[in-house]
Write a structure and sequence with these properties.
Blueprint: E1 4-8, H1 14-29, H2 35-45, H3 48-56, E2 60-67, E3 70-79, E4 91-99, H4 108-123, E5 127-133, H5 137-145, E6 149-158, E7 161-171
Parallel strand pairs: 4-5
Antiparallel strand pairs: 1-2, 2-3, 3-4, 5-7, 6-7
């Protein structure tokens, strides 16, 4: 069993955040998307300027999942106006939860999701929601196992490819 430590990301870890963002997204989606679409998306979504804006938003928080001081995965949550879609003002969005391939199956993703649920309860929101690519069956199964249900869909643009994300939510009983 691994000891997984969750740490809120500060400004000094910004470069590590950018690196793991690009690496985990590539590991997760490169096999199902063109290299042109991946290159365009990675340069836009994880640019230094874009990540700094996200990190400076008071409604957004980033967390690392660390195993032996190695960044194994990360979590990004949004509340209020920081949410990518304004579905519910009293909700918390899990915008990103990614784990490096070498650390998958070691409960890192579960512990990161548990952290998001803990924060949501502290903030007294009524639900947690997220979007997951309809072809990412592994993630959909993971969220269903954790009580999330599908409630809508939206379009996610990866480079020039318009993809469908399934929106899922978990109702919280305070």
């Amino acid at each position: 069993m691994y000891d997984i430590y969750i740490k809120k990301i500060g400004p000094a870890e910004f470069e590590r955040l950018q690196n793991i963002s690009k690496q985990t997204f590539t590991e997760t989606f490169a096999g199902d998307n063109s290299s042109e679409d991946m290159t365009e998306y990675l340069s836009r979504a994880f640019s230094t300027d874009k990540l700094r804006i996200e990190a400076d938003n008071p409604g957004s928080e980033f967390y690392f999942g660390l195993i032996d001081n190695i960044v194994a995965g990360y979590l990004k949550i949004n509340t209020g106006e920081a949410q990518t879609e304004q579905l519910d003002t009293n909700a918390l969005e899990v915008e990103r939860i990614y784990v490096l391939k070498e650390f998958q199956g070691k409960r890192t993703g579960q512990i990161l999701l548990d952290k998001a649920i803990q924060i949501a309860r502290q903030k007294k929101v009524t639900c947690i929601w997220l979007g997951v690519w309809e072809k990412n069956e592994k993630a959909i199964k993971f969220y269903r196992k954790n009580g999330f249900i599908e409630f809508d869909k939206h379009i996610f643009v990866l480079g020039s490819d318009r993809q469908t994300d399934i929106l899922m939510k978990l109702e919280l009983n305070q």
